[in-house]
Design a protein that fits this description.
The chain is α+β, with helices and mostly antiparallel strands and 179 residues long. Helices cover 16% and strands 34% of the residues.
């Protein structure tokens, strides 16, 4: 027997609905007599063919893309500018030959270009050694430098010699120093 209140199917010999407890004695109806309130379904989603899906973000995606492109372009400009500034300076090659005037002993030497240490080592008595170095400066104008060498040891104390050179960009120069 069907309950007229909730529609539950109950055995024929019961007086009350086993689901809702309403008296069902005397109802005698084999079919439900209740009415159900229709539920509302969600509104249908309009069909959009593939490739025509609309963005739900609106203009936010475009804004992010534009900002990303601007940042990448700025980074490229900075890197190019840094590289250009490092190659706009000038350089020249200087070969420095040290002639030892010490008769008996090996001496240590240091080579400087404008007070910057460029090379050091030792030279045997009455021997020569040549060291090549590159000098860099920040303009394309010629520059005047002082190339100097100082010796130590050899039993005669410290000796030094210097030579002034005017360097042009890309040139090769030689200095002969006697210590």
């Amino acid at each position: 027997m069907y309950c007229s209140n909730c529609g539950n199917v109950n055995p024929d010999n019961v007086k009350f609905c086993s689901k809702c407890g309403v008296s069902i004695s005397g109802q005698g109806s084999p079919l439900p007599s209740y009415t159900q309130t229709p539920t509302s379904a969600p509104p249908p989603v309009p069909y959009q063919p593939p490739g025509q899906v609309q963005s739900r973000r609106g203009g936010a995606g475009k804004t992010i893309a534009i900002v990303a492109v601007v940042v990448v372009v700025l980074l490229i400009v900075v890197v190019v500018a840094m590289n250009l500034s490092s190659i706009t300076g000038s350089s020249a090659t200087i070969s420095v030959t040290i002639h030892s005037t010490h008769v008996l002993n090996t001496v240590s030497y240091s080579i400087y270009v404008d007070s910057a240490l460029k090379a050091s080592g030792s030279v045997s008595a009455l021997a020569t050694v040549t060291k090549t170095t590159t000098h860099h400066w920040g303009s394309s104008d010629p520059v005047t430098v002082v190339v100097s060498a100082t010796s130590s040891g050899g039993g005669v104390g410290s000796q030094s010699d210097q030579q002034t050179l005017t360097l042009s960009p890309g040139g090769s120069y030689a200095a002969n120093l006697y210590i």
